[in-house]
Amino acid sequence: MNISEYIESKRHAMKKIKSDIRERWNNRLVKNSWHLQGVEGAAQYLANYGNNIGIDKVIGFAVCAEQEGYPEVAMGFWQKAFEIETGAAPTPKKPKAAKTSTYAESTVIVEAAPRLVEELPSHLQPGRIVTMQPVDAPFDREYYINSPDYWGQPKRDGNRFVVIATKDQVYYQSRSTNIKAQPAIEINNLLLGLANQIGTFVLDGELYFRSSTGSEHRTAPQAAMVNEQNGQPVVAKPIYAIFKALWFSGQDLTNKSEALRIEAGEEIGKYLDNQYFEVVPTAKTQAEKASLAAKQLSEGREGEIWVSNSCQYTGGKDTRAYVMVRTKYNLELDLIITECTKTTVAGRPFSALNVAQEVNGKLVPIGSVGTGFSQHDMEEIARRHATNPGSVKITVRCQGLTERGKLWHARFIGICEEK
C-alpha cells in the first residue's frame, strides 16, 4: 500500500474528529503557530506531545488539519501514522500547490472542511467549537469569594449547549461537538428572529428542563416525573441558560476577557427576555459571591462555577492555570452493603457495591458505588461482607439523589467501624 492509498482508507474510516483532538489543535498547535509551519509543525507537536501517542490520535490530527485547511501539516501527521503502521517512512517533496502534497509515489489532494457560517473563523464553526470546561477547585469556595480575580455563576443541572445563530439557520452543538436538533420550535424561532435583527452570534450555555417546582433536570422525562408526582401537567419546559457569548457584533470574543464575553451574553439576553431563556446571573463583588454561595446551599443546588474574569477562552479542561473551576456541595451517607457485584477483572473482588439506606427499620435500595476504593479497601470489604452479609456499613459521598431516590455520582469514602 502506498501513502495515497493509506490516507484514503484511513480518512474514509474516520467518521468524526473527537473533541479532545480539536481541543489540542486549538490549544497547542494553533497557540504555538505550529499549524503555519507545515510538516515541521506536525513534527514539533509530535516531539513535544507525541510520546507513546496512539495511531488513532495521529490520524485524528491529520484529518483535523485537513479540515482546518492545512494540508502540509496534515501530511506530517499522515507520515507519522504511515510509519507507525507500516514501519516505512515516506520522504515528502515540496508541495506543488497550496492544497496539494506530493510524495514520490503519488499526489494527494485534500480539501478544507466547508464553512457552514462563512463569517465565523474555523474554531467557531458549528461542530468545531471546543467548550471551556471547569475542573475541581484546588481551594475552598472562600478563596474564590474573596478573590477579585474570580467571578461566580450558579452551576446549572443540564447539558452543555452552544448556539450558533445566523439569519438563515440556527445550529446547536453539544460539548462533544455533535450537532444536535433544535430543543424547541419556540427557542429556534426566537433565536432566528434575533439573528436577523442583530446579526450572527454565538452563545455558550446549558440546556435544561424545568419542572413545575422549579427544579432543574437534564432531560424532559426527568422533569416530567417530578411534575407527575406533584399532580401537575407532565410537559416539561426547555430552558436555555446563557453563560456568555463567543461571537457578537462581528467580533471573535474567544481571545478577549471573560468579562467581555459575559457582558456580551447579557446584552444578547436582553433581547431574549422570554420564558424559554435565562441569562445566568454573574456574581462579581465579594458580597454578591457570598450571596450566591449561600443561595446555592440553601436551595440544595449542586455548586458554583468560578472563572477568572480576565482569561481568554481556552477549550477543554485547564488543570494548570485553573482559570475555570467548580465547587460542589456533597452529601455523605452511611449505607449498608447488600451485594458485591461480580467482575471479570483479575485481582478485583467485586465490580461495584449495591447499597441500601435504613429507613424506619427497613432497608431501602439506594443504588450502587463503584469508585473510590483502594485494593486494600476492596479486599477488606469483600472479606467482611462474606463473613457477615447485610451488616457491613460504608460511608458514601455523592452529589445528591436522583428523582428516583438513587445515588448521584457516588464515591466510597470509608468503612464504618463497628460500635
Q: How would you portray this structure in words?
A:
By secondary structure, this protein is an alpha+beta fold. The chain folds into three domains: 3-109, no CATH class; 122-328, DNA ligase/mRNA capping enzyme (D-amino Acid Aminotransferase, Chain A, domain 1, 2-Layer Sandwich); 331-415, OB fold (Dihydrolipoamide Acetyltransferase, E2P). The protein is 32% helix and 26% strand. The strands form five sheets. Strands 6, 7, 8, 9, 10, 11, 12 and 13 form an eight-stranded mixed β-sheet that branches. A five-stranded antiparallel β-sheet has the order 19-18-17-20-21, covered by helices on one side. The chain has a four-stranded mixed β-sheet with strand order 4-16-14-5. α3 (38-49) packs across α5 (71-86) and α4 (55-67) runs antiparallel to α5. Residues 92-108 have low confidence and may be disordered.
Give the strand content: 25-35%
Number of discrete helical segments? 11
**How many strand units?**
21
> How large, in whole angstroms, is the Cα Rg?
25 Å
Name of the level-1 CATH class of the largest domain: Alpha Beta
Distance between the termini: 70 Å
Find the CATH topology of the largest domain.
Answer: D-amino Acid Aminotransferase, Chain A, domain 1
- Spell out the CATH superfamily of the largest domain: DNA ligase/mRNA capping enzyme
Mean pLDDT: 89
Number of domains: 3
The global form is globular
Largest sheet: 8 strands, mixed
User: From the helix content, strand content and strand pairing, which structural class follows?
Assistant: alpha+beta
Please give the CATH architecture of the largest domain. Answer: 2-Layer Sandwich
Helicity level? 25-40%
- Ranges where pLDDT stays below 50 over 5 or more residues in a row are 92-108
